[in-house]
Amino acid sequence: xxxxxxxxxxxxxxxxxxxxxxxxxxxxxxxxxxxxxxxxxxxxxxxxxxxxxxxxxxxxxxxxxxxxxxxxxxxxxxxxxxxxxxxxxxxxxxxxxxxxxxxxxxxxxxxxxxxxxxxxxxxxxxxxxxxxxxxxxxxxxxxxxxxxxxxxxxxxxxxxxxxxxxxxxxxxxxxxxxxxxxxxxxxxxxxxxxxxxxxxxxxxxxxxxxxxxxxxxxxxxxxxxxxxxxxxxxxxxxxxxxxxxxxxxxxxxxxxxxxxxxxxxxxxxxxxxxxxxxxxx
Length: 281
Hints:
Elements: E1 4-9, H1 14-17, H2 22-29, E2 30-31, E3 40-45, E4 51-55, E5 62-63, E6 79-85, E7 90-94, E8 97-101, E9 106-109, E10 116-120, E11 129-135, E12 143-145, E13 151-155, E14 164-170, E15 181-187, E16 193-194, E17 199-200, E18 204-211, E19 219-225, E20 228-234, E21 238-242, E22 249-252, E23 257-264, E24 273-274
Parallel strand pairs: 1-3
Antiparallel strand pairs: 2-21, 3-4, 4-11, 5-10, 6-9, 6-11, 7-8, 7-10, 9-12, 13-14, 14-15, 15-23, 16-22, 17-24, 18-21, 18-23, 19-20, 19-22
């Protein structure tokens, strides 16, 4: 029996998304149960074929089996994988290689036919592996990335409630990838807004994973076209899919950290179509 549970999410037109009520918005874009202990849960999205997932091994390792939509014997047969640990210490085994990941450490795995397993050092404090996977046309070397390896940018201000540190971890300035990019943005105490001014990028889609949010607090994720925005209320350790036509921004009742992941045809991090805050509706 496979350790992997998955569901498909299909692409939606922005004109259709305008009519979605709260339940439909959450069903199309929110990934609430991504971090379930003892399981691997993932969504296969039709947006650039990005896979968004979480693995939480406890008493035994978990194997990342290929899911039926991939039509492959191994998960990474035609894919690359980016992983960031947001829990206790653990290991990722890729074929005959093993990588230990502590909190907020990342790992890139290039496409290759090999078994992938996740394990925790301590079942009582399990590792929580958040991952994104995108189709790959070439095989690039595996690489572990720490925050010390990342391209770090500090932006915003406390006065604008968006003082934050962006850690670009799986990006082309750090290592070669086919199309996947991932990083982690940490908001300073007192700051709650991310990705402001908001933007879209037609050349790639994105996914956000929110964590380090107290269990009694919440984050409001904003999406939609700039003049037709919608919102989704989210909790700690939940993910959301952002179509290429949508803004992706949030404000929370407490500071937090989020992981961003992108896939598409453009690897230029700065390729964005900005929207002034005063133009949002």
